[in-house]
Amino acid sequence: MTLPTWVSTDLTKAFFAAEKQLSPRLEAVLRTDPALDVLAVSHAVRRLAARAVHDAANGLVEALGLPSSRQVRRLQRSIDRMQRSDS
């Protein structure tokens, strides 16, 4: 019985052998319009979720009376504007 080329005790060899077999198929699938649509939608959903989590965390920090990253960023912009106007 002969084993496939990707079966090896050397993980690097096994990885590259499997990648050589799988990458053309994966590329063919990912270059289709439905796959690109799924990627675009999943990216948008991930960004939306990340923004919601970030906003919720900032709201919680502000509710506790601590400076949030949003407030620190605004303060830094104000300081930068003041320094530019002095120069």
Q: How is this fold's topology laid out?
A:
Blueprint: H1 11-30, H2 33-63, H3 69-86
Relevant terms:
mainly alpha; 87 residues; 2 domains
Description of the structure:
By secondary structure, this protein is mainly alpha-helical. The chain folds into two domains: 31 residues, no CATH class; 46 residues. The protein is 79% helix and 0% strand. It is built from three helices and no strands. The protein is elongated, with a radius of gyration of 25 Å. The model has no long low-confidence stretch (mean pLDDT 90).
Summary of the model, kept short:
With 87 residues, the protein is mostly helical.
Q: How many DSSP E strands?
A: 0
Distance between the termini: 79 Å
Q: What are the segments in which pLDDT stays under 50 over at least 5 consecutive residues?
A: none
Percent strand: under 5%
Radius of gyration from CA coordinates: 25 Å
Largest sheet: none
Q: In terms of quaternary structure, what is this?
A: single chain
Number of helices: 3
Mean pLDDT: 90
What string, H for helix and E for strand, traces the elements in order?
HHH
Helix content: over 70%
Q: Write down the overall geometry.
A: elongated
Structural class, from secondary structure content? mainly alpha
What is the number of independent domains? 2
